[in-house]
Amino acid sequence: MRVTVSRKAHFNAAHRLYRKDWSDEKNNSVFGKCNNPNFHGHNYELVASVTGSINPDTGYVIDIKDLADIILEEVEKPFDHKNLNLDVPEFFELNPTAENIAVVIWNKIRKRLGADMDLEIVLYETPRNFVSYKGE
């Protein structure tokens, strides 16, 4: 029997969508207002869902406190109130789109989970725009 346990989290961050190898005109055409050279920000909402077997000793798939601590250490502390392009090493060369942010978060949390657990990340950039990633 496999059960999914989910934890919500929140962080605020600024970013700019652009490619250094493209002209200003092409960046503006593709990314529009998200290419603002002075950056822009979002109030991101994150849902991290871990699926696994229930441990017969504890009754847990994962201790929710442990999942909360992982999210705090791997996502909230490094991303909250940061400029993703300038302050977060994973995005120094990677365009911080919602899609790429979700994959980076998945990789950071995944390394902290047991091999027998599955992970899904749902990242809301706005209340109406969100992405999900379950791994490759």
TrEMBL record:
<keyword id="KW-0862">Zinc</keyword>
<keyword id="KW-0456">Lyase</keyword>
<feature type="binding site">
    <location>
        <position position="40"/>
    </location>
    <ligand>
        <name>Zn(2+)</name>
    </ligand>
</feature>
<comment type="pathway">
    <text>Purine metabolism; 7-cyano-7-deazaguanine biosynthesis.</text>
</comment>
<dbReference type="InterPro" id="IPR038418">
    <property type="entry name" value="6-PTP_synth/QueD_sf"/>
</dbReference>
<feature type="binding site">
    <location>
        <position position="15"/>
    </location>
    <ligand>
        <name>Zn(2+)</name>
    </ligand>
</feature>
<dbReference type="GO" id="GO:0008616">
    <property type="term" value="P:tRNA queuosine(34) biosynthetic process"/>
</dbReference>
<comment type="similarity">
    <text>Belongs to the PTPS family. QueD subfamily.</text>
</comment>
<feature type="active site" description="Charge relay system">
    <location>
        <position position="81"/>
    </location>
</feature>
<feature type="active site" description="Proton acceptor">
    <location>
        <position position="34"/>
    </location>
</feature>
<feature type="binding site">
    <location>
        <position position="42"/>
    </location>
    <ligand>
        <name>Zn(2+)</name>
    </ligand>
</feature>
<feature type="active site" description="Charge relay system">
    <location>
        <position position="125"/>
    </location>
</feature>
<dbReference type="GO" id="GO:0046872">
    <property type="term" value="F:metal ion binding"/>
</dbReference>
<dbReference type="Pfam" id="PF01242">
    <property type="entry name" value="PTPS"/>
</dbReference>
<dbReference type="GO" id="GO:0070497">
    <property type="term" value="F:6-carboxytetrahydropterin synthase activity"/>
</dbReference>
<keyword id="KW-0479">Metal-binding</keyword>
<keyword id="KW-0671">Queuosine biosynthesis</keyword>
<protein>
    <recommendedName>
        <fullName>6-carboxy-5,6,7,8-tetrahydropterin synthase</fullName>
        <ecNumber>4.-.-.-</ecNumber>
    </recommendedName>
</protein>
<dbReference type="InterPro" id="IPR007115">
    <property type="entry name" value="6-PTP_synth/QueD"/>
</dbReference>
